[in-house]
Design a protein that fits this description.
- The structure is a homodimer.
- The two termini of chain A are about 35 Å apart.
- Chain A has helices spanning about 5-15, 35-40, 75-85, 215-220, 265-275, and strands spanning about 45-50, 55-60, 65-70, 95-100, 105-110, 130, 140, 150-155, 155-160, 165-170, 175, 190-195, 210-215, 240-245, 260, 300.
- The first copy, chain A, has 5 helices and 16 strands.
- The first copy, chain A, is of the alpha+beta class and about 300 residues long.
- At the A-B interface, helix 1 and strand 4 of A face helix 1 and strand 4 of B.
């Protein structure tokens, strides 16, 4: 298996999208900045540490770690329930039991028989959006959005708005709450992660509670379910969930540490501009626009 | 593993996106049509057979079949080369050697040492777009596009336009041609399929030649590459490609047969409308819009 240097360079240039946990950054050049170059050049002030209270660490069988960052503004009843569930070790011994291609990976207690721990709130309101306010200091994407008046970011999270309400958007890696038909809004015990093209039609129809910041491939590369809507069939082995813990409940030495780019920083504005206007060597025609799900917020592990 | 009927119904309602090869259709209801309902109700006249000359059948080790439909309007030099390569059995014995999460699966002759068969055209022009014309009878998506003046469909394929040129869009399942830096446009020997959120920044920068109509999960669920940009590392096993044939070169009894919805039909217009305005039981707020990559053209196998 040989690759000549020109080919390797071209393949690297082709490697446009950052994974959610950032790749090893490439050097920036003044002439043709790349998204990775902007990330590498961002000063320390452009990064914000993610609190261990906001990280859920899910261990799958086979030492596969998936880390989820909890969202701060939306569906806080669900997020609160998830903290209760993690502290009660509710998810230990449950499974990933649904993988639907170009859509979602879903996990939790498939039997629905496992008792919920005390302290959970139910039923929860359909608080899928919150009132829009200038105080939210939304970073507004200059590109048009196919689903809303405007898309952008607040406090590191992708959002869309009609200027009356504002809501999180379903993008690759987004984590949401399974539910039955409305008015049920789910409890937070059953979760899914998006593993395909952003299913934006779900925005404002289901509670988004966070995003996968490490290990999404441990979900996206699982075998697809053979039963309807990607449910695992009786001949398939579900993926056992060994444990789910808040990082803040783990010994400090075992905690993962992450930081995310401040979406109010100049670095982030530069990053968005470069993602919408790729002019580095591989590109012939810059797109001149970008959709909110094609701007993964840079997140990286830190020592 | 038990699921109560209400839960199953809710999960089915949650199963919004059609895979590229259509699922078993659900019945349509007058009150709240679903995308699957529109597909099921479409008359025979709304479907067009896909010619066997336009289908590439790739067999991966383990009896995994991936079927690619070749595009009719764009990058015809590349499509022509791909027919030559298939007839010469060029891809037999090559491999899938790159899987980058939320981006692409790539295959071909990683060594780049395998001689190309006679009859291939090289170098090929960068014909990534063609002049826009009303004669193309583009179905115009009513929703705004983040990357172009307008997005829509011609002859069953997703496209975008600035009303001067028109080009194919990079969506989940799209197949394109690996290349080195410009002006090289690649030959068609090295191919990739999109396995993540539509990387529209590649539009007009690389040759799109088709889409996967069956078996995308055989690519999207492969283990991610451990080396840079998802290249397989030395410890990983590439997926062997046993054969790639045009369906028209296979015995009739072994050929796959597919048909696609006519994107000029009323059924397709209905389908787009329903995808942009989901009002069936699970949905609380219809999106009121949809992006071109979230409208997979219905394709189904036929007897």
């Amino acid at each position: 298996m040989h690759l000549n240097p020109a080919k390797i360079a071209a393949l690297i240039a082709l490697a446009a999208p950052l994974p959610i946990a950032a790749q090893a950054p490439a050097p920036a050049t003044e002439e043709a900045p790349t998204p990775n170059g902007v990330i590498a050049a961002a000063p320390a002030a452009a990064w914000k540490a993610i609190a261990p209270e906001d990280l859920l660490v899910m261990m799958l069988e086979g030492n596969r770690r998936v880390v989820i960052q909890l969202a701060p503004h939306f569906s806080q009843g669900h997020v609160g329930n998830m903290r209760v569930l993690a502290k009660a070790h509710f998810w230990d011994g449950t499974s990933v039991y649904r993988i639907q291609d170009n859509y979602v990976a879903q996990w939790g207690d498939r039997s629905e028989k496992k008792p919920h721990p005390p302290g959970m709130k139910s039923p929860l309101p359909q608080d899928y959006s919150i009132p829009y306010s200038d105080d939210l200091k939304m970073f507004e994407l200059p590109s048009r959005d196919s689903y809303a008046h405007l898309a952008g970011f607040i406090d590191g999270w992708p959002v869309a708005t009609d200027h009356d309400q504002i809501w999180m958007t379903h993008c690759y890696g987004s984590v949401g709450v399974g539910r039955n038909g409305p008015p049920d809004a789910g409890t937070g015990a059953e979760l899914y992660a998006v593993i395909g093209h952003g299913p934006r039609q779900l925005d404002r129809n289901i509670a988004l509670v966070g995003r996968v910041v490490e290990g999404i491939a441990h979900l996206s590369s699982l075998p697809r379910g053979t039963a309807e809507i990607g449910m695992y069939g009786p001949e398939q082995k579900e993926t056992p969930i060994l444990s789910v813990r808040l990082a803040s409940d783990m010994p400090e030495s075992e905690r993962p540490w992450f930081e995310m780019m401040d979406t109010a920083s100049k670095s982030f504005a530069d990053y968005v501009h470069v993602r919408a206007n790729r002019k580095d060597d591989f590109y012939i025609l810059p797109a001149g626009g970008v959709d909110v799900c094609n701007v993964p917020v840079p997140i990286r592990s830190r020592p």
